[in-house]
Design a protein that fits this description.
By secondary structure, the protein is of the alpha+beta class. The chain is built from 7 helices and 7 strands, in the order H-H-E-H-E-H-E-E-H-E-E-E-H-H. A hairpin with a 3-residue loop joins strand 3 and strand 4. It starts with a helix and ends with a helix.
């Protein structure tokens, strides 16, 4: 099987639902930024997400990346996105998968997936959190999804405010729930308590 098939199979076709936390039950939602200037918000989100991800993608865990972006962008916009990724130290390998999903108004989501070194994690999180900050560069116009397919868990850092972690690996999710209680989003804490304390 390829990356797309592995993602669909492991996450029951729900990996790219938005909002992910509500589409894939019994997951985690973390609150990342804590106020302050936009630089403080960005750096706090990046630091928190990096810490949490270190328990999802340990030294032995393979990292699979999927970038999602609209096909309505013209070719120049795609080249700009690739340049921004390159500036963040993320070079798309030759071995990769590309697929498309039709959405309303005759547009498409494009998905670009590849296996990557764990060393790319800080740059990938940077790209995810830079989306809402026009003054922070590099800032590629894409969403970033991170997968540990072997462990059955995925991370979606949707913006500097939050990050969803879901998957069929209930034991790992429970461990993250108990370890990072302080970082859970209060609004959804009751749903997470129901999943991991009963």
């Amino acid at each position: 099987m390829g990356i797309q098939a592995d993602i669909v199979s492991t996450f029951e076709g729900k990996a790219f639902l938005r909002p992910l936390f509500y589409g894939y039950p019994h997951g985690l939602r973390f609150e990342l930024s804590e106020g302050g200037s936009f630089i403080e918000q960005f750096l706090t989100a990046h630091q928190k997400a990096t810490t949490i991800c270190s328990d999802v993608f340990d030294d032995d865990a393979p990292l699979t990346v999927c970038l999602r972006f609209r096909s309505a962008l013209n070719a120049c916009a795609h080249r700009s996105m690739l340049r921004q990724l390159d500036a963040a130290g993320i070079r798309i390998p030759r071995t990769r998968e590309l697929w498309a999903e039709r959405i309303p108004d005759d547009e498409w989501w494009l998905y670009l997936a590849f296996d990557a070194s764990r060393d790319l994690l800080p740059g990938l999180l940077w790209c995810a959190f830079a989306q809402d900050f026009s003054v922070i560069q590099p800032r590629p116009a894409c969403m970033v999804y991170l997968f540990n397919l072997n462990a059955g868990i995925m991370v979606f850092p949707y913006d500097d405010r939050g990050m969803d972690v879901v998957g069929p690996n209930h034991a790992l999710l429970a461990a993250l729930y108990h370890k990072y209680q302080h970082a859970l989003l209060d609004y959804d804490r009751a749903a997470m308590r129901e999943s991991f304390e009963h």
